Amino acid sequence: MTGLPSHLSTTAAAYDDIAVLYAQLVRDEFDSLPLDRAMLAAFADSVRAVDGGPVAELGCGPGRVTAYLRDLGLDVLGIDLSPVMIRLARESYPDLRFEVGSMHALDLADDELDGIVSWYSVIHAPPRDVSSYVAEFRRVLAPGGHLVLGFFESEGGPVTTFDHRVTTAYRWPIDELAALTAEFGFTEIGRMLREPREGERFRRGHLLMRLEK
Fold first, then answer.
1. How many of the other CB atoms lie within 10 Å of CB of 102?
2. Which residues make beta-bridge pairs with 59?
3. Can you give the residue ranges of the Methyltransferase domain (predicted)?
4. In-domain check, residue 40
């Protein structure tokens, strides 16, 4: 992609470099994450209850969450900054649609989607930019559409940076992220906090929200 802000170009290049290894590491990750699966299942149920229209996973990486959403009965598209990640996703799941793109300027029409999954994909965004991402989510979501966010939670602290293995990332207090989305017309439906498993460093946060009509 051309014309990206510098931090997005850095993130895309970093994920290109580790894409093959990353895909191998996360391929079967959901097998041991029942709470994460439950959050995505709740999202899928919410989308189907409204209309069951198209859904996008933004920051899809090698596509395993996109495929999981497909298996939950959703009409889903995967979008990612990293061209190498998109190539791997297409190779692994040739029946699904994957596109290179950025959350800051989606090649989607207003109100096109009934759901968005942002699964650990805003973690690399500088905090000052997260509002612009949420505004873009609102633009492409139809009224009554649903959004689920997965992120690293700050465990009582403020928004803080940490040394993510790929490139700089941020941990967010769950209340602050929920309040930020509320400024753009989202109402919280539910949340889930998961303590770190063996080998993980930080608590995980998850928010399920609906865009008010």
1. 22
2. none
3. 55-145
4. yes
